[in-house]
Amino acid sequence: MKNNTKLIVGVVVVLIVVLGIWFAVGRPPAEEPAADVPAPAPVEPAEIFPLDTDVVLTYWLVLRAPHVAANFTNYAETPLYKEVFERTGITVEFQHPPEGQATEQFNLMVAAGDLPDIVEWGWATFPGGPAKAIADGLIRPLNDIFESYAPNVSALLEENPQWARRSMTDDGTFYMFPFIRDDRDGDNRLMVSTGIFLRYDWLTALNLPLPETYDDWHTVLTAFRDQKGATAPLSHDAFMTRDHFQTGFGVNMGWFLEGEEVMFGPMQPGFREWLELFRDWYADGLIDPEIATVDRRALEARILGGQTGATIGAMVGRLGFYTTAMRETDPNVKFMGTVNPTKTRGEQPLFGMGPLSQGSGAVGTGAQAAITTNATEEEVEIAARFLDFNYSPEGHILFNFGIEGESFTMVNGVPTYTDMIHNHPDGWSIVEALSAFARAPINGPFLQSKEYIWQYAYLPEQRASWENWEHSMGQYDGQFRWMPFITPTAEEASEMAAIMTQVNTLRDETVLRIVTGAAPIEAWDTFVETIKGMGIERAIEIQEAGVQRFKNRP
Amino acid sequence: MAKFNAVSIKPEKKSILENLRSFSQIVVKDFRRNKYLYIMVAPVVAFYIIFHYLPMYGAQIAFRNFSPSLGIFDSPWVGLEHVINFVESHYFWRLIRNGLLLNLYEIIFGFPAPIILALLINELRNSAFKRISQTIVYLPHFISLVVVAGLVREFVSLEGLINDILVLIGMERTVILQIPELFRPVFITSLVWQSMGWGSIIFLAALSGIDPQLYEAATLDGCGRFKKILYITLPGIMPTIVILLILRMGSMFDVGFERIILLYNPLTFETADVIGSFVFRRGLLEFNWSYSAAVGLFNSVINFAMILMANWLSRRVNETSLW
Predict the structure, then answer these.
(1) How far is A412 from chain B (nearest CA, A)?
(2) B282–A498: do the CB atoms touch at under 8 Å?
(3) Fewer Cβ within 10 Å of end Cβ, chain A: N or C?
(4) What residues in B contact A14, CB-CB < 8 Å?
(5) A97, A69 in Cβ contact below 8 A?
């Protein structure tokens, strides 16, 4: 009895203390609203660097692995940024998330509101849209800042309104220093980097041409299976994100445009045709039996082990990598890219791989640099000038080619990588060597140069693959069917997330169940009915509203 | 400890005022008598207040539309909108069912495993062998989840060890991770493998608290090893087992969703998708702190109810309980 009383007394005392502290601490003061950006200062003349400043900026970005991370632990140690610091006179303290934890770190940083002055991230695809990032008080609107402190990027965006429209939210607010793939003069060489490719040496041995139609593919994959002993003739990872085999049926895995209307690919009749085709191929052993679980590493093992002869992937990171790795033991190995298949020969797929497969165009992919609300007014100016340097003629050369005399020399007026990049004395790969001097092979806040790509993707078959992929880039009947780069409002984003998490769950389940034969094709009909109940029509409305607003952008 | 907790107190009827007065007298008297104990316990109490109770004010964002720029207290109230949004989801019942079933299987197969292991280790006589095997069974606990999932995927892949064994005994190769019915066994097995050794530590500690004289007496009475385990060892660690089981009930709705997203794929959503993984996928589409807070709170409330129930049940059945 006595012991119990003591226990109760103890508990009550604790409670009283807790409540006391609660009331004593009370409500924390509301955060001060962000100060207004001052009136724009007059535009500076071009020659302002090196700046004389004591400000040390903080700059968060991912140290790409293996590109940079293989040899450096901080970007400030690279020859590239040493040179940038010297030329701009600005010192920056880089912060890098641990390898493989970038997303977690970013999420934590955002949730805590604890952002450094500059954060480089895929702001264009920020969950809920960049407008939400501004409304949530994470990053600053940049219109005034561009005008006052960033003459180079301003000039570029002014001359190229197609880039400007993709660097802003619907109401015309610039929010980032964009990563721009130079697509001027209709040149697509930086725009197409991924596609279907297959073992060309096998094709040659089997006396088969590059497949163009679905029937061709059936022949090729069957031959791979029967005559080359491939146990997973066609395989690729991230199965639910690849559209390359569907565009011939006029559909994709997500959204596309049909005139003014927004369509959800998996609901269209063409999608059912694709499902039937893939179901048959899977049953025939033409598709990887482990298609739902194969990841990058497993795929690599299959390709290098000769179990897989056809896959989908990037020109350098996959095609180039596999080629180099396999030629060490077999110099005859050759991969070649081919067009997206169609039902009849010579037909143009309704939409091809599209620029960068998602139709986001020259701006919108990769990492973009945003200035956060945590930067003081003084830091904002220095940060803007620091980032704007990248877009100046001098910065453009530096970020794409590095330092003259070290990583490149001028040959006939074209910056050309030196032998040190191609055959690094310490045995670094071209990816690692170039990434120490330039950001062209990665991405970031600068304008990517057209001159870099064929020096980097230097295998002849890489260029040939690119030509095949570019051929099926698809402006069928003169219409561009990929969605433009739309940004939802905060309310729309919330509603979309609620609907699409369910729809995507059911889509992924249904597609894989049908393909692997776990469900009959009729499951697709049920799927279409069910997602109507989940609110897909409302999601389509939201997408259409976004497209309208994109069209009305300033 | 367990015994006196089980004694229930029946306070005499007094008026509230009287109660308060006598209560404050007791507090003052108790404080005077035990002031060093109070001082000693103060840091611990402060720790819980600062790191466990004060942060709870943040839970209110579950009922607001939280925006970092407005802060917790100025974000607009939306009431139960986020909870309703979750409950009305097409997959709500499937997520609940999967979470509960995974937990149930984990309790059935995963809970006894460390106890059995501890009993086995306890019976080992060669102390060098005992120490080595203990270390070996602890080790998996320290391996990162990502690596463990990688190992599992390797073992169950089409050309992996498990399939090789299946072929040896005359069965067909199957893509184990693509079959919904097999997800739970794979998940539970990997979980048990990883946590069994670590979990046995607490039972080994409890085992060492049993009076050796009991064993001697039992030997004299002619008990074999198995009988000793049954009549001395198990009853000796029963309070520990019950307490841990009650605590385990408090996380009936929690599943380590990290392990799940490393092992599942759309083909096994049917049995593998749980609240955590669903919210994770939604987070890829939209940063919504309030929604995840609401789901988290929903989870906690149910867990809290479960632990209350388990405690009540245990007190009824065998007089051992948390409070």
Answers:
(1) 48
(2) yes
(3) N
(4) 45, 48-49
(5) no
Q: Which fold has domain A56-187+361-456?
A: D-Maltodextrin-Binding Protein; domain 2 (3.40.190)
Q: Which CATH class is domain A194-353+460-551?
A: alpha beta
Entry field: residues in chain A: 554
Residue ranges making up the domain that contains B145 = 90-318
Asked if residue B35 is part of any domain, the answer here is no
In three-state secondary structure terms, B175 is coil
Checking if the pLDDT of B25 tops 90, the result is: no
How many structural domains does chain B have?
1
Q: Whole-angstrom Cα distance, residue B255 to residue B102?
A: 7
Out of B45, B69, B175, closest to residue A135 by CB: B69
Confidence at B198, pLDDT banded by 50, 70, 90:
very high
Is B102 contained in some domain?
yes
Question: What is the reported pTM?
Answer: 0.83
Lookup: tokens for A296 = 């990058």
pLDDT band at A42 (very low <50, low <70, confident <90, very high): very low
User: Are A56-187+361-456 and A194-353+460-551 equal in CATH topology?
Assistant: yes
Give the torsion sign (CA, B218, B222, B225, B228). Answer: negative
Quick check: B71 and A496 CB within 8 A?
Answer: no
- With beta carbons less than 8 A apart as the criterion, state whether B250 and B304 touch: yes
Q: Which pLDDT band, with edges at 50, 70 and 90, does A473 fall under? A: low
Mean pLDDT of A64-84: 93
In a domain, B44, yes or no: no
- Does the structure show a pLDDT above 70 at A19? no
Centre a 10 Å sphere on the Cβ of residue B204 and count the other Cβ atoms it contains. Answer: 16
Residues B14, B21: Cα–Cα separation, whole Å? 11
Residues in B touching A513 (Cβ below 8 Å): 266-267
Q: Identify the three-state secondary structure at position A121.
A: strand
Q: In this structure, what CATH number is given to the domain that contains residue B157?
A: 1.10.3720.10
With respect to residue B66, please indicate whether it lies within any of the assigned structural domains.
no
Q: Where are the domains of chain A?
A: 56-187+361-456, 194-353+460-551
CB contact residues (below 8 A), chain A span 250-309, against chain B: 289-290, 292-293, 298
Instruction: Give the pLDDT mean for A38-51.
Output: 58
Phi, psi angles (nearest 5°) of residue A300? -60, -45
